Amino acid sequence: MRIDVISAVPKVLDSPLNESILKRAQQRSLAEIIVHDLRDFADGNYRQIDDSPFGGGAGMVLKPEPIFRCMQKLLSERKYDEVIYLTPQGVKLNQKKANVLSLKSNLIIICGHYKGIDQRVIDKFVTKEISIGDYVLTGGETAAAVLIDAVVRLIPGVLNDSESALTDSFQVESGFDSPVYTRPAEYEGMRVPEVLLNGNHKDIAAWREQKGLKKYNKVRKKKLNNK
Ligand code: 6GU
Question: How many Å apart are CA 26 and CA 24, to the nearest integer?
């Protein structure tokens, strides 16, 4: 998979994309992630990439020309499956959407900044507007790091068997993982649940499912009676 990211502050993405599993995915050539600095596509000595909104109001808007130029360059080089604009006004990301995106070959991600991007960019190029949740971030870069992480780890070969995505919470029935423990079996007077120590895999699987489900119901199911 190739992912091109268009950003006003590409540095924000440096470490999230170049450590751990995402680094390994790129080293194994399973993912190619290229971040484009909007300023490289801007005009004049000032290389201005944003301006105040028509009609007034607070904040700045990313100008259309640099994004159009970057998009036109990319589209002249290859076909893209989706052009994603990351915005709090988008559809909310979930595991199912990450699964679908992980099957694509070429993606463009446009990171918004300040008050957003000129609507004409969206009208001309964008095929999906995605939000990572109902809260506001200063820019789309941190959201891009989240989206790329969620998608790239699903590409076959990126995770080792021991990290398999098939058993992830949200891929399994209950939606939540169970609690996990490692050595020592007793620490500061707190003992690991006996079922995990006795080696009965059927009991362990049942315990894990029940714990995940119980936590899910406690945290996510809205109580109807206000108690
Ligand atoms: Cl995708 N961008 C920004 N700036 N804020 C967000 C978001 C995206 N998703 C949730 N909040």
Answer: 5
